């Protein structure tokens, strides 16, 4: 079998799908994208396609190594997201060619279901309680919300109190019937992270995500030393080499590689195993679409340390399209009591409505995250 063609489709709300065709009629789908830089990743996918077209799609490891090592320069969000989407599609082809779901190719199920969590509250979490109550009715008991709004390098008590008030309201309204992670979203610098985490301790968030930016990962062990709340990070770490340093330095309790940013299934499996060796849990990052989610689920179902799966149903970013809009086999993604079950169809287990993809890709738009500014006019981390 040989790869014959790579076609990319930028799509609402802010996704990109990749279709990889072969000379035996088997097609694989991937989801290479960096939110807000879809066109850049698209160019990278087509530049890398020179190393994929004409190749045997079964040789995933060799193609992956060629894409990663063959261009001298390596790593980073753009190239690793392009590789991720190609890798996902190659695993999809392999599973379809052999008639088995990808998790069977990776040693089979290590669990029967994986707990999902849902975003509530949007960019500026105010009233998250209503959102949580609605989702508990369909079985969710685990949520994530932004831990704060903009936070200056040194900020004032009112900002800290506003952030803590949200966590206090959640615990007040929901008790310990639910759990919630707080995503600092990289908005907080080391000095304020120490203070904010200390003030949040009494409300026992399930984890604090990106307490500081990934480029400040050396603070993770120092922050972990001051708090019992698990530190989570990984969505802006793009290879096992980035995770290696962070795992070795300690402090990380939950690794959150993104299956569409960190080299795909091939690389994230390695990251999952490395994390397990350090007793670090796996909770793949996934605010994206169905192919990214399916790729996460196959890794979750073969990774002993997988504990939670992010998914974008109802996420504040999904304006213009919802998680399963482009999926034919929607029922396979049904969450029961807040859990996902294995995708058992061959390959990744996502049947893409190609006609709708082609239609909606005609005016996809270019999603951009907001650029926030501090009161003094300087750019703030969003
Ligand atoms: O945890 C999450 O889902 C992420 O922090 C998410 O909010 C961002 O990755 C966003 O997608 C960037 O555009
Ligand atoms: Mg996050």
Question: How does this model look, in words?
Answer:
The protein is of the alpha/beta class. The protein has two domains: 3-100, Enolase-like, domain 1 (2-Layer Sandwich), CATH 3.30.390; 104-346, TIM Barrel (Alpha-Beta Barrel). The chain has twelve helices and 14 strands. The chain has helices at residues 38-48, 60-69, 77-98, 102-105, 129-136, 157-174, 190-200, 220-226, 240-249, 264-277, 290-300, 354-360; strands at 3-11, 15-22, 27-30, 114-119, 142-146, 179-183, 207-209, 231-233, 254-255, 281-282, 309-310, 339-340, 372-373, 379-380. The strands form three sheets. Strands 4, 5, 6, 7, 8, 9, 10, 11 and 12 form a nine-stranded mixed sheet that branches. Strands 1-2-3 form a three-stranded antiparallel sheet, sandwiched between helices. Strand 8, helix 9 (240-249) and strand 9 (254-255) form a beta-alpha-beta unit. It is globular, with a radius of gyration of 20 Å. It starts with a strand and ends with a strand. The relative contact order is 0.15. Bound molecules: D-galactonic acid (J0M) and magnesium ion (MG). Pfam families: MR_MLE_C (PF13378), MR_MLE_N (PF02746). It catalyses: D-galactonate = 2-dehydro-3-deoxy-D-galactonate + H2O. InterPro entries: DgoD-like (IPR034593), Enolase-like_C_sf (IPR036849), Enolase-like_N (IPR029017), Enolase_C-like (IPR029065), Galactonate_deHydtase (IPR023592), Mandel_Rmase/mucon_lact_enz_CS (IPR018110), Mandelate_racemase_C (IPR013342), Mandelate_racemase_N_dom (IPR013341). One of its GO terms (biological process) is D-galactonate catabolic process. The active site is at 185 (proton donor/acceptor), 285 (proton donor/acceptor).
